[in-house]
Amino acid sequence: MTEPTTASPPPDEPPAPARADAYPLYGPRFQTDPAELYREMRRRHGPVAPVLLDGDVPAWLVLGYREVHYVTDNPHLFARDSRRWNAWSRIPPDWPLSPLLGFHESVFYAEGVEHRRRAGAINDALAGIDPFELRAHCERVADALIDVFAGSGEADLVAGYTDQIPLLVMGRVLGLGEAETTGLARDFFLVSAALEGTLDADARIRARMRRLLEHKREQPGPDIATRLIAHPAALADQEIVDDLLVVLGAAHLSTSCWIGNALRLMLTDDRFALTMSGGRRSVGQALNEVLWADTPTQNFAGRFAVRDTLLGGQHIKTGDLLILGLAAANNDPRVRPDAYTSAD
Questions:
Q1: What is the pTM of this model?
Q2: Mind giving me the DSSP string for 32-45?
Q3: Positive or negative, the Cα torsion across 320, 296, 203, 241?
Q4: What's the CA angle centered on 82, arms 24 and 299, to 5 degrees?
Q5: What does the pLDDT average to over 32-45?
Q6: Helix axes 198-218, 184-193, angle to 10 degrees
Q7: Is 201 within 8 Å of 191 (Cβ atoms)?
Q8: Is 283 helix (H, G, I), strand (E, B) or coil?
Q9: d(CA 320, CA 298)
Q10: pLDDT value of residue 194
C-alpha cells in the first residue's frame, strides 16, 4: 500500500455520538492524577479507550505501546491531515483546541510525498547548525539564567529556567532577535494548554513568524529561516511560516518539560538527590528515565482513521481522531511490567 497524498473528504454521515463510557481528557482528575486515570482506562477498555476532549468531543486514546507504534507506522490507515476528522461539524469557532487540531499548511499535517518534501527541507535546515556552537550557546543561556537567581536562596526553576532555555536558544537558531522572543513562551503555553486566550496567542505567534520571514528575505543570515527560504524545495512563504512554527513549538515545549521533569527527579528522588555529587546517578540517566516514567509529551494529537478498521479491540470509524497516549504507552504493563503493582 502507498501513503495517501491528499486528505479524503469527511464521510457524509454524521460522526457517532460520544460513548457513555468515555473518559474526559480534561478536568481535575485528568490534571491531578492522569497516571491512575490511564490505568483505569486500560483495565476497562484495553489498549484503546474512548475519551472526550473539551466540549465532550469524542476521540480515542491509544494507551498501548504496541498500538501506538502500529498507528504511527501505518500512515495508509492512520493519516495526519486533520481535515479528515469526522467531528468538525460539531466544533465551535472558539474551541480552545482548534490551534492544535485545526488544519495548517505545515509539515505536521502533510502526508506522503508532500510530507517528505517538507520534512526534507526542515532536516536540511537543521543539519546546517554547528553542534559545537549550539552547545556553547546553550551553556551561555543556562549560565545567564542561573546567575539571575543564584544569590537569592530560592528560585522558580520552571518559570525562571526550564521555560526560558529552549526558547532563548531556538530564537537565535531560527533567526529571531531577542526582542521577538519576548512573550513567545507565554503564548506557546497558552496554546499547548488550551487556556483562555489561546486563539489570540496562536495569532500572535504566527505574526512573529511572518515578520521573521520578511526580515530574513531582506537580511539573510546563518539560521533556519534563511536556509528554508533558499532551499531547493521552493517552499512558499506560508509553508515556511507554518513549518517554522512546528520546529519552534516542538523544540520549546517538549524540551522545557523534559528539562523540568529531569530536574524534579534529581532534586526529589534519593537515587539522584543524595548521590549527584558522588556521580552514582548522572544527569543523562535522569533525562533518559523521565522519557519513560514522566515523558514531557503526555498525549499527542493525533492521527485520523483513513477507513473503518479495528485497533486494540475497538472499532474505529473513518475520520475518527486518535490521540497518541505516550505517557500511558510508556507504562504499558506488556512492555514495562515493573511500572505496575500486582493489583494493576
A1: 0.81
A2: H-HHHHHHHHHHHH
A3: negative
A4: 40
A5: 93
A6: 140
A7: yes
A8: helix
A9: 20
A10: 63
